[in-house]
Design goal:
By secondary structure, this protein is of the alpha+beta class. Helices cover 31% and strands 27% of the residues.
C-alpha cells in the first residue's frame, strides 16, 4: 500500500480530479468545484436518478483492481440502471471515502477511467464529496432523463410476452473466478469494465413492443424473478435457449454462471410475442448482436419455472445478494 507523502489537501485532490475529467458536456451548467451541480434537462422528458455504492473487500478487491478499471465500473453500474429505464445519462456525482492508497496518481487514474466511459455517453462528472474512511468506499449517483413514452419499468411484463436478453451472460462471473490467473481479455473486461447498454435501452424503449426492462446485475434467475414479481406474472425459462458464449462453453458449470453469476449488465426485456421477430431483426441490424428469447411470461404470481426437455419445474431464484455476499 502506498502512503500519501506529503499528504494532499482536499483542494489539491479536487484540482487533480478536475484535470483528469477534462472538458464537460454542454448540458452541464455548473460542475465540479461549486456547492452543487446544475444541468439543463429537456422539457419533454422525465428525470431519472440512481445510485450505487462499492466497498473494498465487499464489491471489489483493491489489491487486484486497477484504478482505471475501478473508475469505469463504478460509473458503469449506474449507467446500466439508466439504460434499463430507456434513458440517457446527464451527469454523475461521486462520493469517495478514501484511505492512504489514494494519492494524486491514483485519483487521476480512477477519474480518468470514469471520464473515458462518461464521454462515450455524454455524461458529465459534476462533482461529489471526499472524506477519510477506514476502507475505500465509492458512491456514484447518476441523473438522467427519458421521454415519458420511452420509459420502461420492470413491472410491465404481460402474459404471453417473451423474456429476452441483449447479450451473452456468465462472462463476468467467469472473469471474476479467473481474475488471478491468465484469463482471456474478454472475460477480464466483462468483469472489470462492463459496457452499459445505453443505446440498446433507448432503442428498445422506443418500441411499443417492449413492455418491461431491467438490467441483469445480480444474475438472470434472481433478476427475472424480480421482474415477474413486479409484473404479477410467472416466467418460464427455457434452459435449452441459454447457449453459452464460446469463451465459457467448455466450463462444466457454464449454465450456472449464466443463471446465477451476476455482474452481466445486459438488459432483460419483456417483448410482445407477435412483434418479437421484427424487433429482433432490427436489433441485430443495429447492434450486430442477437436479441435472444430465453423464455416467456404467463399468468401467475411471480414464480420462476425452468423448462427443459419437455419437463417443467419450479425454481427458487438465487444470485448475488448485496447484504449477504462478500467479494470473492
Amino acid at each position: 500500500m502506498r502512503t500519501l507523502n506529503p499528504p494532499l489537501s482536499e483542494d489539491q485532490l479536487v484540482a487533480a480530479i478536475a484535470l483528469a475529467l477534462g472538458e464537460q458536456p454542454r448540458r452541464l451548467v455548473v460542475g465540479i468545484g461549486d456547492d452543487a451541480a446544475a444541468w439543463k434537462a429537456p422539457r419533454s422528458h422525465v428525470s431519472l436518478l440512481t445510485t450505487d455504492t462499492l466497498v473494498d473487500d465487499v464489491h471489489f478487491r483493491l489489491a487486484s483492481t486497477t484504478p482505471q478499471a475501478l473508475g469505469h465500473k463504478a460509473l458503469a453500474v449506474n449507467l446500466s440502471d439508466i439504460a434499463a429505464m430507456g434513458g440517457t445519462p446527464a451527469l454523475a456525482v461521486v462520493a469517495l471515502g478514501i484511505t492512504d492508497v489514494v494519492d494524486e496518481s491514483w485519483a487521476r487514474s480512477f477519474y480518468g477511467g470514469m471520464a473515458k466511459l462518461a464521454r462515450r455517453y455524454q455524461c458529465a462528472i459534476a462533482g461529489g464529496d471526499i472524506v477519510r474512511a477506514p476502507m475505500l468506499t465509492i458512491s456514484v449517483t447518476v441523473a438522467g432523463d427519458v421521454r415519458k413514452s420511452g420509459m420502461r419499468l420492470r413491472s410491465g411484463a404481460k402474459p404471453g410476452d417473451l423474456a429476452c436478453i441483449t447479450g451473452p451472460l456468465g462472462l463476468a462471473a467467469a472473469g471474476l473466478r479467473l481474475r488471478d490467473t491468465e484469463t482471456s481479455p474478454l472475460l477480464r473486461a466483462a468483469y472489470e469494465t462492463p459496457t452499459p447498454r445505453i443505446l440498446e435501452g433507448k432503442f428498445l424503449g422506443a418500441s411499443r413492443a417492449t413492455h418491461a426492462m431491467m438490467d441483469i446485475s445480480d444474475g438472470l434467475s434472481l433478476d427475472i424473478a424480480r421482474m415477474a414479481r413486479a409484473s404479477g406474472v410467472d416466467v418460464c425459462l427455457d434452459l435449452a435457449a441459454l447457449k453459452p458464449h464460446e469463451a465459457i462453453a467448455a466450463m462444466a458449470d457454464a449454465r450456472e454462471l449464466m443463471l446465477h453469476g451476476g455482474d452481466d449488465y445486459e438488459l432483460l426485456v419483456a417483448v410482445d410475442k407477435r412483434a418479437y421477430a421484427h424487433l429482433a431483426r432490427r436489433f441485430k441490424a443495429r447492434f450486430k448482436r442477437d436479441l435472444t428469447s430465453v423464455g416467456r411470461f404467463e399468468k401467475g404470481t411471480g414464480k420462476v419455472w425452468f423448462v427443459e426437455s419437455g419437463e417443467r419445474r419450479e425454481h427458487i431464484p438465487r444470485g448475488y445478494d448485496h447484504l449477504l455476499t462478500r467479494a470473492g
